[in-house]
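Predict the structure of dITP/XTP pyrophosphatase.
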Amino acid sequence: MKEVIIATKNPGKAKEFEHIFSPRGITIRTLLDFPDLPEVEETGSTFEENAILKAETVSRALNKMVMGDDSGLIIDALGGRPGIYSARYAGEPKNDENNIDKVLSELTHVPKEKRTARFYCALALAVPGQETFTVSGTCEGEILEEKRGKNGFGYDPIFFLPEIGRTMAELTSDEKNKISHRANALKKLDAELDSLLERGDNHV
Ligand SMILES: O=c1nc[nH]c2c1ncn2[C@H]1C[C@H](O)[C@@H](COP(=O)(O)OP(=O)(O)OP(=O)(O)O)O1
Ligand SMILES: [Mg+2]
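Done. Here is the predicted structure for dITP/XTP pyrophosphatase.
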C-alpha cells in the first residue's frame, strides 16, 4: 500500500489531502494517528520554514517520508496579516469562529475594492537521508463582510472567489480541491512524490 504521512492535526486539511490522494491509490495518515509524537512548535518566520519544521520533526521521529503543510490567509488591507499567525490570530487555543470575527472587525471600514486577499500554502516533503523539498501555492480572492457557506474549514466562509461568484465554503470539496492554494502547491510536488512512491520508500 502506498502511504503518505502528513504532519498535521487539522482534520480539514486531512480531508482535503485524502480527497486528492485516494483516487491515486495513496492512503494518508496524519498526526491524529500518532498521538504520542511531541508537539511541533511553529517558530519559523515564513510559511516555508514552518512547513519544513513540521515535516522534518515528524520525519525524524518516525524515520519515514513526511509532508508538512503550513498555510494561512494574507489580507492586503491588513499588511499581510494574519499570515503565518492565521491559526492563532484570535489567541490560543485556536478557534476558526473567533479568528473570522477578528478579521471581520478589523476590516469593518475597508471598502470592497480594498478587501483583496490570498490563501497561501507551503508544503515541505522530508525524506530520511535527503534534502527537504518545498513548494508553494496561492489562491486569490476577496474578504466578504459576513460568512457564507458551510463547507471547508478555517477562513473559507469569508473568502470570496470573484470569478466563481461563491465563497470557498460554498464550493463542493471537488471544486475546492481543483483551485485551492493547497491543490496548487500539491500539483508542483506531484512528480517528486510519484517517483518517491514508485521507488517504494513508503510502502508499508
Ligand atoms: O484551505 C483553507 N481554507 C480556510 N482556511 C485555511 C485554509 N488553509 C489554511 N487555512 C487557515 C486555517 C488556519 O487558521 C491557518 C492554518 O494554520 P496551520 O498552522 O497551517 O494549520 P493548523 O494549525 O490548523 O494545523 P497543523 O499546523 O497541525 O497542520 O490557515
Ligand atoms: Mg498549526
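The chain is about 30% helix and 25% strand.
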